[in-house]
Amino acid sequence: MKEKNKITIAILVSLFIDILILWLLVVPAFRGISKASSSLLSYKKRLVLIKGEIANFQDFETHRQLYLKNLQEMDNLVQEQLFIDKEIPSDLVNFCQKEALEKNLQLKITPLVISPQKEKERKPPFDFLDLSIKVEGSFPEFLRFLKRLENSPWLIEVRQVNISKQEEKINANLLIRGYVKARNNKKN
């Protein structure tokens, strides 16, 4: 039995050493392989993203002039459509007169003059034109006129509204600010 015990003990020790080798060497190796493969996958994803960004950048560089031309056209369109011509605001005046006529309102538009000293002091991000609009007529029609003015195609800010009632009509004074075209983009 001694021989059998020695063989059993040798087998158990050998089995224990095998398990210990597996646990100490093979399992960490598999963990390392798993981590390395996930890192490799992450690097491959980043590489694909970088290649895509490079392709986008190269496309941008290739079509740069087209993009600049399109941006310039959009800027010109914004200047033409949204901003008022400061020297001759006839489009805005005609719009107001047409709306007032449609709504049976009496209208008087006056530009507000700013002293040269105050003109030098103000430095807003955009140049603007202040106007005073006097309106006389029915209150519901005045509200419709005001709504149309605020929803007009130009960038307009209604700064002040004063309304007084006289019998069936109202008298309203509006102070509006219309943002004007940039000076360097004027057509000559």
Please characterize this protein's 3D structure:
The chain is an alpha+beta fold and 188 residues long. The chain folds into 2 domains: 61 residues; 102 residues, Alpha-Beta Plaits. 59% of the residues lie in helices and 20% in strands. The chain has 5 helices and 4 strands. It has a 4-stranded antiparallel sheet with strand order 1-2-4-3, covered by helices on one side. A hairpin with a 2-residue loop joins strand 3 and strand 4. Helix 3 runs antiparallel to helix 5. The model has no long low-confidence stretch (mean pLDDT 82).
Widest sheet: strand ordering: 1-2-4-3
Average of per-residue pLDDT values? 82
Q: For the record, what is the CATH homologous superfamily label of the largest domain?
A: Ribosomal protein S6/Translation elongation factor EF1B
CATH class of the largest domain: Alpha Beta
Class by helix and strand content? alpha+beta
Unreliable residue stretches: none
Helix content: 55-70%
Q: Per CATH, what is the topology of the largest domain?
A: Alpha-Beta Plaits
Q: What fraction of residues sit in β-strands? A: 15-25%
In the CATH hierarchy, the architecture of the largest domain is 2-Layer Sandwich
Q: Give the helices and strands as they follow along the chain.
A: HHHEHEHEE
